[in-house]
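Record pair follows.
FIRST:
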Amino acid sequence: MAILKAFMGFRPGKELAARIASRPYDVLNSEEARLEVEGNPYSFLHVVKPEVDLPQETDLYSDMVYETGKANIEKMILEGILFQDEAAFLYVYAQTMDGKTQYGLVGCASIEDYQDNVIRKHELTRPDKEEDRKQHVRVSNFHAEPVFFAYPDHAEIDAIVSDVVRLAPEYDFVAADGIRHQLWAIREQELISRLETLFAADIPFTYVADGHHRTAAAAGVGRERAQANPAHTGEEEYNYFLAVHFPASQLTIIDYNRVVKDLNGMSDEEFLGKLEAAFEIEKKGKEIHKPDDLHNFGLYLSGSWYSLTAKGGTYDDSDPIGQLDVTVLSEHVLAPLLDITDLRKSKRIDFVGGIRGLKELERRVDSGEMKAAFALYPVSMEQLMEIADTNNIMPPKTTWFEPKLRSGLVIHKLGD
C-alpha cells in the first residue's frame, strides 16, 4: 500500500505566494525563463532554473548553475521570504482551469514505494535528465518541485478534502495563464493521521502522471544518502520526496500531437494513396478536424485537413500498448511510410502539446517549417493506469497533463 507522509514544509508568506510561484523547470527554456523573471526577484525560477542569474553562455550543467540555485533558496529562507511550518502538515492544492477544479494532497511519497513498484511508472527516463535533477537535489538539499501523482479514487479521502477546502485557503491567486491556484494547510493531527492511514490501508498503488525524472532523481539521491549514512534508519527525510496526489478521475490528459518535416520523398498524392491501406480518409478542407474518438486522427497537409480513421486489424485493443493511437500512427505511418523509427532521436519529427491548440499545427505547417501535422485523440487515465499496472512503457511524448503544478508553493528539505 502507498505511503503518504506529512512533513514540515517550507513555503512563502501569503503576500508573496503569487510572485514566487513559477511554472515547472521543464516547460520553458532558458530564454523564456529569463523573460519570465524580469522584474520579479521572487520568482522560484531563480531556484529551479538558476541559469537566469548567470551569463547566457553558461553551461546548463556546470557546478555554478547548481550552486546558484542553492544560494538562491538559502537566501530566500534567510531573508524570511520562505518560512518553515512549525510542525509536519499535509496540504491541499487546488487548480482551476476552464471552470474545472482538481484537488491534490501534498505530502511526501516514499522512495521505498518507488523501488517496490508501489509507485507505478509509464515512461522511461533519460540518464542525462535524471542526473541533472539529481544534482539539483544533491546540491540544494531540497526537493524544490513536486511530482504529479494520481491515485485511485477514494470516497473518504474525497470527503476529508471537501471539508478542508470549505475553509479559507492560505493562498488564492490566478496566474498569468488564467489558472487559479489555491492551497490549504492541514494542521489537525487527527486528520493528518487519518489520511496517512487511509493511504496505507486502501491505496494499493500511486501513479506518476508527470515527473518521472524528478521521481527517479529523488529515489536515486535517497539511496545515496542511505548508503553514506552508517546510522541509517529509514525514517530520515531523504527517504521521502515531495508529491501532489490527485484522484485519477479529476485529472485531464490532453492530446500530444506530431508534426513532420517531410514526406520521405513522396508527393501529397502518393502519401495519401499509401495511407488508404490502413485508414479510411475523409477530406475536411479548411475545417479543422479534432479527433472525436480513439483511432481517429486529424491530418493537416498543404492547407487541408483530413480525417483518418484506422481500419479494423490495424490496432489491438486487447494490448495496452497496441491500442494507443501513438502506436497506430507509428506502426502504420511514421515508421513504414516516413522512415521515422526513433521518436527520441529523429530530427524529422517534433511534438506539440495540445494546450497550444490545433491552430498551432496549422501554423507550423503553413510556415513551411513542417510538411504535415497529425492530431491525436488523448490517452485516458484508464489507459495510463493499465499500462503502468502491466509494467509496460508508453512510447515517447504520449501524455500531456494540464494544468501544470506551480513550483515554490511548498518545498521539502532532505534533512540537516
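SECOND:
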Amino acid sequence: MTGLSLSLSGKRAVVSGSSRGVGLAVAKVLASAGADVAINYLADDKRAQAALDALKEINPSSISVKSDVSTPEGAGRLITEAEKAFGGVDILVNNAHGRIIRNMFLKSGWEEHQSHMDGILRPAFYLSRRVIDGMKSRDWGRIVNIGNNMLIQPVKGYSALTSAMGALLGFTKNLAAEAGPWGVTVNMVSPGFVLTEEAPNTNEAVRRAICDCTPLGRLALPEDAAGAVLFFCSEAGRFVTGANLSVDGGRIMG
C-alpha cells in the first residue's frame, strides 16, 4: 500500500489575509509542499511585496492580489487572478478576519457583533462560493477556515469575536456535509495565542500564564497552525471533513 503523502505538487492554492502572521506561514508551507499559491492583502503594499518576495523564493510562480475579500467584488477579483495565473483553484484557506474589537458585553452594541460577522464569515462565504463550482467539476477540493480556540474556551471581552467564530464553525460543518459527495473537504483550524506581529501588544505576564496552562509549555508559532492546514489540504487528511482542530499545545482538550 502506498503511503499517504503531504505533497501538494500540481495543486493551486489561495490564502486570504496572508501578507503576514498565520496566513503567510500557511502560504509558505503550502508552497513548500509544491502548490502554486496566491496570497491576498487589503492595504499594505510594502508588507505584501516583502511577503511575495519571500514566497517566490520557495515557488517562483507565487502571486499576490490586493482586494477586500469581505465584498463579493473583492473576493471575485482574488479568485479570478488566481485562476488566470494557475488555471484553477484547488485549495482555499480562509484566513482574512478583519479588525478584532475587544469590549465587555454590557458595553458593546450589535454593531460590534455585526462587524465581526462581516470580517470573518462574509469573506469565507464569498470566497468559498466562488471556488466551489470549480472544485465540484474536478471532484477534488480543500477548504480550510482559520478560527480561534476562544470558540471553545471563551475569554472575557471577546463576545463578538467568539460569536463570529461560532458562525464560521457552523458554516464549516454545513458546507462539509454538502460538499463531501463532490470530493471536497471543509475543515477548520483553531489556534490558541500565536506569536505574530501583534503579539507584542500582549504583556509578558499574560504570555507566561498561557504557557503555564499549556501542556507543551510554550506559545504557538505561525508554522504550528500552518502544519495543521497542510494536513487537511493533503492526501493524508483526505478522510477528514467537518472537523475543528485546536492547535494550542494541548491547552484545550476534547
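COMMENT: The mean pLDDT is 93.
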